[in-house]
Structure formats: structure tokens, C-alpha cells
Amino acid sequence: MTQDVEMKEQTPPSNSLSSTTPSVLHHLKEIASLIETGAYAREVRRISRAFRLTMVLRKKLKASSLSAFLNYVLVPGSEVHSRLSSFLPKEDDHDMEVDTATSGPQMPVKHPLPELEIYCYLLVLIFLIDQKKYSEAKACSSASVARLKTVNRRTVDVLASRLYYYYSLCYELTGDLSEIRGNLLALHRIATLRHDELGQETLLNLLLRNYLHYNLYDQAEKLRSKAPRFEAHSNQQFCRYLFYLGKIRTIQLEYTDAKESLLQAARKAPQAALGFRVQCNKWAIIVRLLLGEIPERTVFMQKGMEKAFRPYFELTNAVRIGDLELFKNVAEKFSSTFSSDRTNNLIVRLRHNVIRTGLRNISISYSRISLVDVAKKLRLDSPNPVADAESIVSKAIRDGAIDATLDHANGWIVSKETGDIYSTNEPQIAFNSRIAFCLNMHNEAVRALRFPPNSHKEKESAEKRRERQQQEQELAKHIAEEDDDDF
User: CA 143, 148, 154: angle at the middle one, nearest 5?
Assistant: First the structure.
């Protein structure tokens, strides 16, 4: 009996410890107060911080805690409350009791702030997407976008940009991405008129993604070239823009600009965005191969990317050797991977580079070789391989890929002696490009520095303020007397 009594006396402290741990609803209330403070103070950084804190709680969200939060923020029975509550599934009574017990007093708000209302839309939409209820998510996102069209506040821009992203994501997951293209264009026009630069960034990337999803590269380039340009506000959106720009430039055969955009997007992307960096590097590898470059082995050995880069590593090896037969085998072996990455058309373009690389290796190895042997070494499977080899060699000589002469009468290639590359301007050009890259990175780092507002202004006392005003009046009087003297 004494042991039972002792056990009963020890159980209440454990319950009190569990009750003191902050719940999800408690964190959501703190985020709501942070949003409210940012809305009244007109500080966008507080809204951004609130969204980052929400992403930390994303995996812990439940329907019961969300419904309790909606009752806390919104007016029960209002149109917004009833609409958002209809999207949430009904939980069992046990969960509801636990959440309501920790909810505390209601927020005495009769007219909630637009920021809090938009945040409730965003919270419910994220929950529905995580629960894979895409039909309800589409309806919720459409309602939130309709509400956003009536709100013109700079403190809503951060939440609005995330709502735009999840709005497009809902329709992309259901395969209905083309349905919202006109609405995205209208939202981009509204954001431009309201000078919502963060919204313009997000919507421009969503439109580019929409066009590229259906291989409408010409329309994407027309939109990108005519869209207003300004300094990037979000690093994530800027990385996406560079990635889409690199894909457009690649399709348009502008490989140099495409390589720069793709590599910059991969460098600027966060370390947590592994999938995005993998896609950027895949396209960058193909573009470098199309430019005639061979990527370093360390590119394929990056941490967490070895398995994803295996097809491209074998493809690079085939291009480096210049073996056309090996190139065909690799393309057939990993055709499903290349089709899912949408790089099939680019790999077809690499066939000419494989032939040119093999021809360059032949010209370096032999001072003179017949066209028949060239056709055999290149493994040309055409009906007339010698004629094809002759046309390929002549084009390579004209383009400057190989330094040789073609003897049509005897049917052979005569290679010239290789010169010293350090006697040319190639080292100077490479050194100049590295210096320009370092300077560009330094300038971007300086521009990215952020300082708190009015940090240089110290709080002055009443006496100092009077002294400063008196000095300003005396200075203004002195300036006025000098102006009279001039006349």
C-alpha cells in the first residue's frame, strides 16, 4: 500500500512536465503575435521570420491544432473561418480536447489583420499539400489567390509570394498546370502595378516553369526578355531564375551563357536543396560537353550526388574517348533517366561532339592517316563512310577543331605539328575569366550585406534634440544672410 501511495504521489510531476512542454498551438500563437507586430510596425523581416518558423513546425501540424488556431485568430462563424474550417478533416475527440486545453484564452479580434488572414490560408494550404489532398488544396489555393487580389500591403508580399508558389504546385501535382497560366499572367500584371517586386520574382519563375513544362521555350524567352528587371530580393527565386535561364539558353544554342547561368545557380543554391543542385549540375555537364569541355572528375563525386551522376559520368567518358559505339550504348542504357531529366534532345546533339573528339585524338596520334582508317576508327555506320569521313574532316578543319590539311587526291589527312599553348593568349584569357569571377563574387557579397534600419542613429535626449534644432536654425539663418549678400 505504501508503494502504491508513493507511486500515486510521483505521477503528478510527470504530467506537469508534459504539460509544460510547448505545443504546436503555442508556437503558432507566438508566430501570430510576431506577424501582428510586423504588420503594425511595417517590418517585412518579421513576416519573413514568421514564415521560417512555420516551416520548422510543418511536419508537426495536425487538423486539431489548425482548427484551434483558426478559432484563436479568426472570428468564429465568419466567412473566412467557415471556408478554411471546411478544408480541414475532422479529428477524434481526444485530440481536440488536448489542443483546446492548451489553447488558452481567445484573441479579442473582431477585424483580423489581412496578414493573419493570409497566413491562415497559407497554413491550411501547406497542411493539405502534405496530406496529399490535392483537390482540397486546389480549392483553398484558388480562394487564397482571389483574396490576395483585394489586398495591397507590402507586409503581405512575403506571404503572398509563398501562396503563389503553392498555388502553382497544387496544379502541377495534379497535372493541370496549363489551366492557371492566364491567372498567373494576371497576377504578375497586378504585382507589377503594385510594385510588389518579390511577387514579380516569384510569378515570373512560376510562369517560366509553366512554359518550360510544356516545352514552350520561345514563349518563355519572350516573357523573360520583356519582364521588368530589378535587383533580386530572394536568393531562392534568383537561383530558380538562373536555372530556367540556363535551360532556355541551352535550347537556343547559346552554350556559353547557359553554362554561366547553370553553374551560378548551382553555386548559389542552399546546401539543403540537393535535388535542385543535382538538376543544375546535370544540365551544366551536358552544356560543357556541348562546348567541347570535359568536366572534372570531382564534379561527379560530390557528396550525395554520385548515384544521380552515374549516367552522366559514363556519358562523359564516352565523349572524352570519342567512341561513337560506346556513346550509343550509354544513351540506350540510360534512356529512361535522360528522358525523365528532359536531356534526350541535348544528348542527340552530342553525337557530333563525340565524332569531333575522336577525330581530334586521331589527328594528334597520327601525322598522316587515310580517310578509310579514319572511318573505321570513328565507327561510322553510314552507307558511304569514307565520304562522310571526308566531309566531317573538312568541316572540322574549317571550324578550327583540328590543325591539319586534307589531301583529296591521295585520300588522307596530314596533321600539323602541335604548338605550345603558352605562346598563345589562352592562359591570359583563362586567368582573366577567373579574376572576373572573383570580382563578381566579391561585389555580390557586398551588395548582399544587410544592416538593421537606423542603426547609425543613436537615441538622442531632449537636450541634445534642442541643441541640434538650434544649430539647424542658426545654420539656416546664416545661409539666408549669405544669399542676401549675393543679391
Answer: 155
With cell 497559407, the residue in question is: 122
Residue-wise pLDDT for 478-487, tens only, equals: 666 655 544 4
Give how far Cα 106 sits from Cα of 43, 73, 78, 109, 358, Å.
Answer: 25, 8, 15, 9, 75
Question: One-letter amino acid identity for 312?
Answer: Y
The pLDDT of residue 243 is 92
Question: Taking Cα atoms as reference points, which of 165, 175, 174 lies closest to residue 144?
Answer: 165
Q: 10 Å Cβ neighbour count for 125?
A: 26
Question: Phi and psi of 480, rounded to 5°?
Answer: -65, -40
- What is the average pLDDT value for the chain, to the nearest integer? 78
Compute the average pLDDT of residues 427-446. Answer: 89
Our CA angle for 261, 266, 269, nearest 5°, is 115
Q: Please report how many Cα atoms fall inside a 13 Å half-sphere around the Cα of residue 409, on the Cβ side.
A: 0
Q: Do you know the residue count of the chain?
A: 487
Q: What residue has cell string 532556355?
A: 248
* Long-range Cβ contacts of 43-51 (<8 Å, 24+ apart): 43/155, 44/154, 44/155, 44/157, 44/158, 47/115, 47/155, 47/156, 47/158, 47/159, 48/158, 50/119, 51/122, 51/158, 51/159, 51/162
Cell of 56: 520548422
Helix pair 157-173, 134-148: axis angle to 10 deg: 150
Q: What is the pTM of this model?
A: 0.74
What pLDDT is attached to residue 478?
A: 66
**Would you state the pLDDT for residue 464?**
75
Write the pLDDT tens digit of every residue in 267-308.
888 888 888 899 999 999 999 888 888 888 888 888 888 888
Contacts 24+ apart (CB under 8 A), 128-136: 128/87, 129/166, 129/169, 129/170, 129/173, 130/58, 130/59, 130/61, 131/89, 134/170, 134/173, 134/174, 135/174, 136/87
